[in-house]
Write a structure and sequence with these properties.
mainly alpha; 64 residues; 3 helices; 80% helix
Length: 64
């Protein structure tokens, strides 16, 4: 697994945990750490979204 794939996977997991916390506890961990829709939180959300799209590629990789 390439480094970029591992980074994407970690960000996908962070996004999944954050969504789980939102659903179960109504607690947004990213907003708590970086501020509600601050520049940093928007960057994190953007990276998680891009990683989710990258994860689609991981589904179809023949190397794994």
């Amino acid at each position: 697994m390439k480094v970029i794939d591992k980074i994407a996977l970690v960000l996908i997991i962070i996004g999944a945990i954050n969504w789980g916390l939102i659903a179960l506890l109504e607690f947004d961990l990213v907003a708590f750490i970086f501020g509600d829709m601050s520049v940093l939180s928007r960057i994190v959300y953007g990276l998680v979204g891009i990683s989710g799209l990258w994860g689609i590629k991981l589904l179809f990789d023949k190397d794994q």
